[in-house]
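[retry 2/3] IPT/TIG domain-containing protein: previous attempt timed out, resubmitting with same input.
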Amino acid sequence: MQKLTTYLFAGLLLCLMGVIQACKKDKTAIVVPFEVKSYYPNSGAAGTLITITGTGFLDGKASVAFNGTEAELLSTTDSVVVVRAPEKGQSGAITLSNGTKSLTVGEYTYQKLSVQKIYPPNGPAGTQIRIIGAGFSSLKSPAEVLINGKSATVVSASDTTLVATVPDGVGSGPVTVKVDGMVSVGQPFQFQAVSGIKPASGGKGTRVTIKGEGFAALAANNVVDFNGTVAEVAEVAGDKLVVIVPEGVTSGPLAVTINGQKIVGPAFTVVPPPVIRLVSPLSGPAGAEMIIDGKDFSTVADENVVTINNIRAVVKSATAVRLTVILPLGMGKGPVLLSVNDQPVKGPEFTEQSLGIQKLEPSNGLAGVKVVITGTGFSVNPAENEVTFNGVVAQILSATETTLEVMTPANLTTGPVKVRRAALVAESPTTFNRAGMATVSNQMGSFIGALVVDNQGNVFVSNTRENYISKVTPAGDVSIFAGEPNSNGYVNGKGRNARFGSIYGLVLDENNNIYVSEVGAGGGTIRKITPQGDVTTVKSGLPNDIGSLTRDKKGNLYYTQLYKGVFRLYPDNVSENVFPRTAEDIRTAISSNNDLFIVGDKYEPTFYWRELNSAKLTWVGSSTGYQDGPASSALFGGTISSLLMDNEQNLLIADAHNYAVRKLELSTGQVSTAVKLSRGYADGSLDQAKMGLIADMAIDKEGSIYISDPNNRAIRKIVLK
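[retry 2/3] IPT/TIG domain-containing protein: success.
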């Protein structure tokens, strides 16, 4: 028991000694050195107040002497002492004692010249500082001011006040005044400047590093704003500040305010978060390249942070719409994440494996099209690879380690392409779209124009100069549906027994009745043809400048009249003018909410958008060219040959000179490209197909677009789904 007590006492003693030793160590660690950092002014008359800054001033009782003469202390803290130059003091050294130690502060000169205070004590280049003191006047030469040893321009002077302008790049240092050979050094001026920011663009939450000098040591003493909106200062480190872009930020200059002095820096541009449109491939080995396409990326590579399953990848190159990334080791399987200047977006899942698909060429087409799949890890033996298009197996024509040539299957539908090799499966970065152009018939005349498509997929097309209407079945069989070639007249009847004048417009109703606008010897007429081919008159006696036809959901017909505009024809045969101007027979379009679209002049790259319910008028297009974007600034070629509403109530625009079908989304007012082809004659995928002039357009219930192509004497079909 005695031994146990002894052991316990020894243990407690050791613990107590450890605590005492730790306290000693802690006390040693927080000892503040006794040192002087600055003092000012270094000259003046008796009674001048001198400020001494530093640390460790209050170890005991502080005292100050001027060349041996003790001075009156006015205030004392551990870091600042304010003392009055004694009446009987002499020029010489100032000494400071903290009760246990003493040191030399610097030299003090008794003279009339004295720099006692400056205001403001900080600021950027161009700041005008007031220097308060004595002895600044001279009959010999004006006072000279230096800041950190560099000359500053004096803009006004009196015996007690100087105003000087801070020069560019002066840096921080004391303010010195020279008069008649005398020199007085005053308090330091803190020069402040912003030399740059990174990044220079972003949005809410972006961390921006501000490089410069003269920042306040405490974060709260640096007030940073982005075009007037104050931001949080997260870090201060010597020559930089790190700030968080605030909510509600707008583009404009960044500024830092310290002690009321504002430093304006570079502009910060607010950009939206990035958008990922494509990641290719979705699987592959480490070290391979990945392409990320989208928009609103930074062109500075290191401002785009890409991680795959939380493993950071190297961004090799960057543009605003494309990043090239080197795949890192150890990715495994996980999401692709992109953060552009702290604005994140999530991409698809990536799998680290040897098998991967980089691209499909072409990326759209119809059944029976050859497609080259480029990637990695394929077997050179075609039988060891399985390729499916949206789940349907395709025929493999040839194979290498990096390419597979395949034939699209007969029952092709839009969807992903997958390659399977043994246990590995790779998916294409984009879907293969069942899309392309096919010729319905190339046995048409050279004067084909207006066309419609019925519910069974039969196409009806007018031959304007030869005065008849053809029918083309889905199988491509062509027959004359109504009228007789090269005849002229005004005769109702059935099929080829009817006679027409020049046909300018066709429109279809929900019962597959066709309405025809024509001009003959008797003037303008609107006729009706039933699905059985019976021709009757809807309205006669119209002017001989009647043009195109369209129809709204209520069954009202709309026809154009040269130079007089667009007229609405009600079922009771009463008509009214609903738009005052058009000079063409180009097909107009009307939406389900009564937005009317009219081509005023077929040789101008513009058209009208008239909202009949509100009478609002918008001019779509601006000048000749090719550019998507807002309706007012989109560019079209020199001829707009047809307008048509699609099944989603977007406007399709036949941009004839650009060999394109453009789309205007009514809800956003944005113009985009639905189909862009090239001139000539070729079927196939949309990037390979060619066509001639677009005379008119029609759309079927599946959303496929039919085009009358008189240059190639053909009816063409564009499949988009």
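[retry 2/3] IPT/TIG domain-containing protein: The mean pLDDT is 92.
[retry 2/3] clearing retry counter.
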